Amino acid sequence: MSISIKNPEEIELMKEAGRILAITHEELKKAIKPGITTYDIDKLGEEVIRSYGCTPSFLNYCGYPASICVSINEEVVHGIPSRTRHIKEGDIVSLDAGVIYKGYHSDSARTYGVGEISPVCTDLIKVTKQSFFEALKVARAGNHIKDIGVAVERYVLQHGFDVVVDLVGHGVGKNLHEEPDVPNFATRRRGPKLKAGMTIAIEPMVTVGDYHVNWLDDGWTVVTADGLAAAHYENTILITESEPVILSRAEGLEL
What we know:
Largest sheet: 5 strands, antiparallel
Number of helices: 4
Helix content: 25-40%
Radius of gyration: 17 Å
C-alpha cells in the first residue's frame, strides 16, 4: 500500500481547493428549497466551482454524469441529478461534491433538511455530523485507521442509528480516491498508522434502519435496503503531529 504524504506546497493547494468547495456548499445550502430540481442544484454547483477557475472532481469520474451528487431521503450517496426530480418539503438532501484546484482535490458532503422534517431525521443529521467530529478526535499521528472507524461506529450505535459498511472514506490528493480506505466502522485489522502529511476524507454514512444497502439500476445511486432515511457528512482532513486540520472549510462559514 502506497500512501501519499503531502508536502507544504501540496497542502496549501488542497486548502485552497477545500476553501472553494466550502463556498460551493454554502451556495448550494442557500439554494435548497421546495420546488428546485436536483439538476438545478448540480448546475449551480458546477457554476460556482468553475467561477473560481476550478474543475468539478466528480464530473465524468468513472462515468458519473454530473458535478454534484444529490441524494434524497433513502438515497445514501451518488444520486444522479435530474431535470424531473424536485425537492419537496420534509425531504433530507445529501450533497457530495469535489473540487480540483491546480491538480489537487478536496472532497466533502453535507446533509440538509428541507423545511420542517421529522424528529428522527433531525437527529439523524445531527448524529451523522457529530460522528465525524468524534472521529476527528482520534485522527492524529500515531493512531491507526481503525481508530477512526471505531469512533464513528460507537457514537452512531449509541444514538440508535447504524453505519453503512459497503462504502468507506478514502485518501485524497492528486487523485480523488487514494490509499488508504477509511472505514466508518470497526475492522479486524488496525490498518495503516496515521502519519503527519496524510490527507484523508472521513465520511460517515448513517442510516435510520440497518446498514444494508442496494444499488439502483443506474449503477450509481446507493439506497437503504429498508427504504428508511440516510445521511452523509464528510470533510477532507490533514493529519498532523498534533490536532488534525479540516481542509474543506472556509473562514466565516459553518462546517
